[in-house]
Design goal:
With about 400 residues, the chain is of the alpha/beta class. It has 11 helices and 12 strands. Strands 2-8-7-6-5-3-4 form a 7-stranded mixed β-sheet, with helices on both faces. Strand 11 and strand 12 form a beta hairpin. Helix 2 runs parallel beside helix 7, helix 5 packs parallel to helix 6 and helix 8 runs antiparallel to helix 9. The longest helix is centred in the N-terminal third of the chain and has 20 residues. The radius of gyration is 22 Å and the shape is globular.
């Protein structure tokens, strides 16, 4: 394999990561040093709680994170609810929606459990959770190893999803960048089709956040955690809801979901409205100041680096990697398949190599050997997952090629 030509540089010093020497798959991305410093500052204050300020150190930290997440999504801060995970955001939507027995939720096959279990749990309320295969031969779960991988010539996936909507479908739940196979879906097109059919689109966005910017046009709700590509801590996330969709959801009823901010002085304002109209309406009580402070700093790092530039950089690294890997006869089929998907703008940050190329046992050995080379990857449902982020370089591509050859 020829050495890849350098991609236009992205200043990796912007990311200021402790573990930059590792070629880490962004499914469990490192936390920025700025986030670590924010954690330390909060801990120092927590050790002396009598010095903490209510507005600045509690409510203010949460407000800063809502603002940062809104900037990341090109949205309004009032539409952001703070949660502790992607699952928590999806559960808030699933449990709060006014379902009727016989209603249906439609899911593409191969979703991560966080975007399956909340909908499946609605069975106790008479709601049907129906999955649809996106291409011929797609399988998941116990049958995943017998699944055929997606190709650039497969049917129009958005049309498959929209065509599966039935008269009882109230909601479509899907991942923007898919867990099983790395496919990135066209949210705007699906949302437009859902709106035309009177159906809400709810999105699990975590697999693409930090390296790509989603379109929220026509989307009803979008949930993400702050780890992985957002480079924040585990246990902190957010939920975006459209202002027309949010009133349909049952409020969480927590002490901070009042229209007026809670007063520590005991003079709580009496507002005729019981619940806030903004995203606080759906928040599960007091958010973790630790998590909010850390994630805010990591999101600020990404905003400074510019997610649009990160996306372009990641795409160029993927192209270099796949073009070089295509010269290896063993990897050529999968490299060509993924390159076709990349050229069709079908991929998120994760390249998912189907086990049919080398066999599952050999892939597992590669993962183990990668750790010796400071390369951490994973195998999920028969796919070897390799992801690039903004701090990676053409030299990292060369390292990955040497590891696989």
């Amino acid at each position: 394999m020829q050495s890849p030509q350098p991609a236009p540089p992205l200043d990796s010093s912007l990311f200021d990561l402790e573990g930059r020497l590792w070629l880490a798959h962004c499914m469990e991305g490192p936390m920025t040093r700025a986030a670590g410093e924010a954690l330390a500052q909060v801990v120092r204050k927590e050790l002396r709680p009598w010095e903490m300020r209510w507005e600045e150190d509690f409510l203010g930290v949460q407000a800063q994170l809502r603002q940062a997440c809104a900037e990341l999504l090109k949205a309004d801060p009032s539409d952001i609810s703070l949660t502790h995970s992607t699952s928590a955001g999806l559960i808030t939507v699933a449990s709060g929606f006014p379902w009727k027995p016989g209603d249906e939720v439609l899911l593409p096959l191969g979703e991560f459990p966080s975007n399956f279990m909340p909908w499946k749990a609605l069975g106790a309320r008479g709601v049907v959770c129906r999955e649809v295969a996106l291409w011929a031969g797609q399988k998941s779960g116990p049958d995943a190893l017998h699944s055929a991988p997606p190709g650039a010539s497969d049917p129009d996936l958005e049309s498959v999803i929209l065509g599966a909507i039935g008269p009882k479908t109230r909601m479509v739940g899907l991942s923007w960048a898919r867990f099983q196979d790395g496919i990135k879906l066209d949210l705007e097109r699906i949302a437009e089709g859902c709106q035309a059919r009177g159906v809400h689109l709810v999105v699990d966005g975590i697999q693409g956040m930090g390296t790509h910017t989603p379109s929220l046009k026509g989307v009803s709700a979008f949930a993400s955690a702050g780890h992985k590509g957002l480079l924040g801590p585990t246990g902190q996330g957010f939920l975006w809801t459209h202002p027309d969709f949010r009133p349909l959801l049952a409020p969480t009823g927590t002490w901070l979901s009042r229209p007026s901010a809670f007063s520590q002085g005991g003079n709580q304002a009496q507002d005729p409205e019981l619940w806030a109209a903004d995203g606080r309406r759906l928040e599960p009580g007091g958010a973790s100041v630790l998590g909010c402070a850390a994630l805010n700093q990591s999101v600020r790092v990404l905003l400074q680096a510019d997610v649009g530039r990160i996306e372009s950089h990641v795409s160029q690294l993927q192209t270099l990697f796949l073009q070089a890997l295509r010269e290896d006869p063993t990897w050529e089929p999968e490299a060509s398949r993924l390159l076709g998907l990349l050229e069709a703008n079908r991929l998120g940050p994760t390249l998912c190599f189907h086990h049919g190329a080398l066999g599952l046992a050999r892939l597992e050995k590669l993962v183990a050997r990668g750790l010796e080379c400071q390369i951490t990857t994973s195998i999920r449902e028969g796919y070897l997952r390799i992801a690039f982020h903004g701090w990676h370089s053409a030299q990292d591509v060369e390292r990955a090629l040497e590891w696989l050859s």
